[in-house]
Amino acid sequence: MGSSPETYCDVFERFGRDGVRYVVVSGVAVVLRGHVRPVEDLDVVVDPAPDESQRALRALALLGFVPSVPLPLSMLTVLRMFDQEQREVDLFVRYCVPFADLWADSELFGVGGCAARVISLEHLLRAKRTNARPHDLLDIAALLAPEARGS
């Protein structure tokens, strides 16, 4: 489908309004960090504490997102959610970088008329190296290119 980070501004605004502790990772984070490419979905890691992850689920439900499987987050690593426009949000409660570290090193980025909390470049590269799928390796090369670093 291919979308842009701005496609998810309502999600970022809702998370902010509801006090959801989240960090944007993967494709949207790559784009916000300077490598322009299509994104298929929004991947976010949420605070795994049960009340915190439930806050994220409620916020997405208020925006019309429904889970792809009827299982509690505590049983999953990631929960895919879709809305009527076929937008996809993947909600991670387990990730290759502990949430406390993600949160501590994350940065706020302007996205259209809203703001999103985004994974640090160091953690993004670590996650991409851990996954090491072909598109992850392309993302690493692009993120480390001089033009992406502003050199």
Characterization of this structure:
With 151 residues, the protein is α+β, with helices and mostly antiparallel strands. 42% of the residues lie in helices and 21% in strands. The chain is built from 7 helices and 7 strands, in the order αβαβαβββαββααα. Strands 1-2-5-4-3 form a 5-stranded mixed β-sheet, sandwiched between helices. A hairpin with a 2-residue loop joins β6 and β7 (114-118). α1 crosses α3 (50-62) and α5 packs antiparallel against α6 (134-144). The radius of gyration is 15 Å and the shape is globular. The relative contact order is 0.19. The mean pLDDT is 92.
Fraction of helical residues: 40-55%
Beta-strand residue fraction: 15-25%
What is the averaged pLDDT score?
Answer: 92
> Roughly how many Å is the radius of gyration?
15 Å
Large-scale geometry: globular
Quick one: how many beta strands?
Answer: 7
Question: Strand order, biggest sheet?
Answer: 1-2-5-4-3
Unreliable parts: none
Determine the structural class based on helices, strands and strand pairing.
Answer: alpha+beta
- Give the count of helical stretches: 7
Oligomer: single chain
End-to-end CA span? 32 Å
Strand count, sense and barrel status of the largest sheet are:
5 strands, mixed
Following the backbone from N to C, one meets helices and strands in this order, namely HEHEHEEEHEEHHH
